[in-house]
Amino acid sequence: MSIYQFRVNTIDGQEISLKQFEGKVLLIVNTASKCGLTPQYNELQGLYETFKDKGLVVLGFPCNQFMNQEPGNEKDIQSFCELNYGVTFPMFAKVDVNGVHAHPLFVYLKKQTPGILGFNTVKWNFTKFLVDSKGNVVQRYSPTTKPLEIVKDIEALL
């Protein structure tokens, strides 16, 4: 089992298979536009620009489950990310990451890398999951871990 079995909706509404990212190192992040951690978009974009030619893809999944910090629709989110942070990495439709309506991808990611004390929930916006080029989830990072702090882990997988 790997992440390649999952299908997701892009931010512009197209359903795709994550299999299209096979052979790439992925950094999957649940994002929000009105969070104190939102400036992490800058570092996520920087990572993407620095390492995309070496095989890294950042995947952003907006989520409104944490204090309603992603209230807009997909068009609003896309515009915000492009205008304020120059985001060019793939963004997806809003998802739930916890609870009964959690997207199956996040159910899988959480199961593969339990959080602190083994809890199977995403703690907050900007939780990051690092996936190797074979689709194996190798690490979960807390929301406060800045993207640039995981460069060595990314480089080890590229």
TrEMBL record:
Please indicate if the UniProt record lists Oxidoreductase as a keyword. Answer: yes
| Family annotation (InterPro entries) | Glutathione_peroxidase, GPX_AS, GPX_CS, Thioredoxin-like_sf
Pfam families xref list: GSHPx (PF00255)
Q: Which UniProt keywords apply?
A: Oxidoreductase, Peroxidase
| Keyword Oxidoreductase attached | yes
What span is annotated as the signal peptide, if there is one? Answer: none
The terms under GO molecular function for this entry are: peroxidase activity
- What Gene3D superfamilies does this protein's entry cite? Glutaredoxin (3.40.30.10)
The record's family statement is: Belongs to the glutathione peroxidase family.
Q: Which PANTHER family match?
A: GLUTATHIONE PEROXIDASE (PTHR11592)
- The name of this protein is Glutathione peroxidase
Lineage start: Bacteria, Bacillati, Bacillota, Bacilli, Bacillales
